[in-house]
Amino acid sequence: MKLSKMSALAVTTALCAPSAFAEEMANELTLVSWGGAYQASQHKAYVEPYLAQNPDVKIIWDESSAEAVAKIRAMNEAGNVTWDLVDAVASDSMRLCDEGLAEEIDHDEVLAAAPDGTPASEDFGDLIVSDCFVPQIVYSTTFGYRTDLIDQPDSVCAIFDTEKYPGKRSLQKRPIDNMEWALYCDGVAKDEIYDVLGTDEGVDQALAKLDTIKDQVVWWTAGAETPQLLADGEVVMGSTFNGRLFSAIAEQNQPIGMLWDMQSFDLDGWVIPAGLPADRKARVMDFLKFATDTQRLADQAAYISYGPARASSAPLVGKHAELGIEMAPHMPTDPANAGNVHTYDYEWWADNRDDLDAKFQAWLAK
Amino acid sequence: MSDITQSGPVLAADGRPLKRSLARALRMQKIRALMLIAPLLLFVLLTFILPIADMLFRSVENRIVQDTLPQTVVAVQDWDADSGEAPPDAVYEALAYDLVVAAERKQHTRVGTRLNYETPGISSLFRKAGRRVDEVGEGYLKQFAALDPAWGEPQTFMSVFADPEWLASRAGAGDEPPFQLSETAHDALPKASGAYMNFARTIQEEDNDSPAEEEPWAPVYMALHSDLAANPQAAQAFSGDAQRLLQEAAALIESGQMETESARDAFVKMDKDWADPEVWRTLKTYAGKYTNGYFLNAADLQKSPDGPELRPEDERIYGTLFLRTLIMSLAITCSCIVLGYPVAWILANLPSRTANMLMILVLLPFWTSLLVRTSAWKVMLQQQGVINDTLVWLGLVSDSDRLVMINNQFGTIVAMTHILLPFMILPMYSVMQTINPTYLRAAKSLGATNWTAFWRVYFPQSVPGIGAGSILVFILAIGYYITPELVGGTKGVFISNRIAFHISQSLNWGLAAALGTILLVIVLALYWAYDKIVGIDNVKLG
């Protein structure tokens, strides 16, 4: 009885004042991110300033980005989406967009233009890899090595050279990136990697190359593992996200060096789950416009060494908020670091991920 | 007494037969008992059994192909997959009709993902096709529009296809009712009606637009061409402008002046793999509402023209993992018995004050976070860890070849034994507490040695505790995944790690459900075997 009265009231309000209803914004915003230093950088760079402007708003963090696609799919099936804005890697954003689980966005309409008036779609440029994706940062998966235990390597192929660089290595427990590095170091030209990997022989070739170091590899699944393994001296070199290595090197003063050669670029950004009610969506749009403007993205770089996704933010990147060191040389996009990069093919992996993963796991278990 | 012998059935005080009265009382008692447990039963049913059943059902469910591509699935049935050739044009046409709707509803990539599990590459075929399928038949659209500009008007299609009653009802205020076809159109132009109906309903539902204001997408024109070519007299069924327009179009088609366009070519132009019979074989094989494909995959099998066959060796993984999970869970259970038995014995035989103190020591790790305990084992076991450092310091191993104790099966067994030990000790302890110490004394007083007294008198009485502990530990171990993930490396991971991977990373929920079902069946089979061999009555939890 009470419920029906309430809904009747809601309906009348909606009918009487449709325009006012659409303008109304929810006061709660659930953001989903990765936790750790990265989420902290988002909190300081966008959330705190936003809360200062909108004191009524309450922001709730959820640290579930690693399982974002699975959870959004489950929420969607259950018809109860509790998240408002989700931080996801580019490939996940494409999967969400493909499945209709994420909202498509008109970037120029929703996002702020650059200070000089360049529309958002040009400012972000090619980094808008999907219609549902608002890029925030460019990060890379690259290698760190112990400066005191091995000589300075100058090529990614050092991971396959156990004679010159003895000791264990850590690699991510998945075929992505590892297969490409293996082929590259087996003499395949950079622009032919995916053609070769598309054949059965190419897969065998990559796995055979990885076989040469298989008993020297510690496989990781969480980004924090490699810095820890390096710090403990368990491994002499290992791959992880460049921001993790930066904090081990610059903030914790570990004897670790960066090996930028053949770093694998990837993107991380915001995705809006499909089917939000109008008031929540209005709040999300308001926050999104604020959080992805030129200054905010540049501010984030003061807390973590990931490159801002806007071209117009790059010149504004300054010093680390606490350490006071210049951040630009630690960005994966810095010209000195980006001499030889590996360009990750999203489309190719979307097709072949399941198949290669089965082969990779079978190879691991052998 | 004499009353009873006279009148057959025994009567209760109220005059009814005693048997019925008794049955009634018992039934009432049963109902009352059932009512008492009803809340729990309902709770378990709603929160546990139904979700699990739903999840397990996904292991055979395959509606998505049929639901998203209904016409294609029907059309492709007539095609012989072994012919070595791509299907005829009609199948591609059906695909265009289905896909244009699916793309608008954003369902096409879900089918692509589903079929990609079976044949890599299909995912991008569907993704690309979804972007361009509304161009299939564009040649017809242009030719129709060139013939008469009225073909570019939404109203023309309304007058041909819409049900007059629906047209009248939509004149009213408020939301437009779902589009209805006229019977005339349905009979005279079957394909085009279907295509137009799909178009109208889709834009109503997806975009909240009215078909009266939107020009239909190109495949509708292709369907119209197809209908008019098959039945040039179709126009007779209509009247007025509609009849004239259709007659003109039919005449043009009959005269051979309308350029035809092949749907197959349109798809092959998007991606040459659309001509690959393998793609179509996959679609045909997985067209049913239910599939055993996930279960075959979970058993390292795959479908082939001659029935299920083993996957290529470099893709077989689940058999190994199931076997490994069972063997390692057994090893963990055994080491828990060996380590836990003496502890439980001491606990049961100490004065209760000391026993309680020791009990806290057993329970303390139990209250510590699982992740913390697992991480602690990393610190202990790794090559630069506490144990290796101590051994090197003692000179027992040289610095250059430190022991490898983690990221392998050894690490998993050690860490999981530690984590599951309380589940072994507690049931053992509660059983041992009930064993009367006088039995042992009696045995000894009759001349038994310590060993004989233990083995012949004490141990048999403690077996129910071992049984209970073993079942608990084994069943918990078989489903563990966090600890193996963290310390298992490549050789120490369990089947549950793959299940978790398919749930949260690859999103192949069907395969995850199939693996989970197999695991459940294995556990139930083992439980049954245990009951047959040891007897479940011999298990005591306290």
Automatic annotation (TrEMBL), chain A:
Keywords for the protein's UniProt record, in alphabetical order: Signal
Pfam families noted in UniProt: SBP_bac_8
Highest taxon of source: Bacteria
InterPro entries (alphabetical): SBP (IPR006059)
Cleaved signal peptide residues: 1-22
SUPFAM superfamilies: Periplasmic binding protein-like II
Record flagged with keyword Signal: yes
Protein name: ABC-type uncharacterized transport system, periplasmic component
Organism in which the protein naturally occurs: Leisingera aquaemixtae
UniProtKB/TrEMBL annotation, chain B:
GO cellular component, one term: plasma membrane
Gene Ontology biological process terms, A to Z: transmembrane transport
Entry membrane topology: Multi-pass membrane protein
Superkingdom assignment: Bacteria
UniProt-listed Gene3D superfamilies: MetI-like
Keywords: Cell membrane, Membrane, Transmembrane, Transmembrane helix, Transport
Pfam families in UniProt: BPD_transp_1
UniProt-annotated location(s): Cell membrane
Boundaries of every ABC transmembrane type-1 domain copy: 322-530
Stretches that traverse the bilayer: 31-53, 321-348, 354-372, 410-429, 463-482, 507-530
Record CDD domains: TM_PBP2 (cd06261)
Family: Belongs to the binding-protein-dependent transport system permease family. CysTW subfamily.
Name of the protein this chain belongs to: Spermidine/putrescine transport system permease protein PotB
Source organism of this protein record: Leisingera aquaemixtae
Underlying gene: potB_2
